[in-house]
Write the structure tokens for this entry.
Amino acid sequence: MSKYLLLCEDDQYDRAVFAEIFQEVEKEYELVMLEEGSEVIPFLAKKQRRDAYPALILLDQNMPQKKGTEVLKEVKASDDYKHIPVVIYSTHDGQELASESKALGAVTFMSKPYDYNEYIALIKMLMTLAL
């Protein structure tokens, strides 16, 4: 698989919008999407080589089975995955969540975009953080 960003987002509409704009903006990376935080570690475990890991993981904070920060803890606790940059994003723009995310090892915390231009800005920022 070529270079890719892994998006973990439970909201179908948010996934669809992100994917559509990502394809418009980003030409070098592919987008792989998961629907639930509990899918991230099993997905990574299937990869046989370090160069098969995503260049970046974008985690929605508010997922029903496993929150983004819970997944972040698991990723950063693994010697195999801790090098992967992780970004938490959420509709809740709380400073406490941003601080917690960074303390747990996220490269940054971002608010979910609300319009087309915000999505473009988010995607461009993410790609500067990718491996």
Observations:
- The first helix runs from residue 12 to 25.
- The radius of gyration is 13 Å.
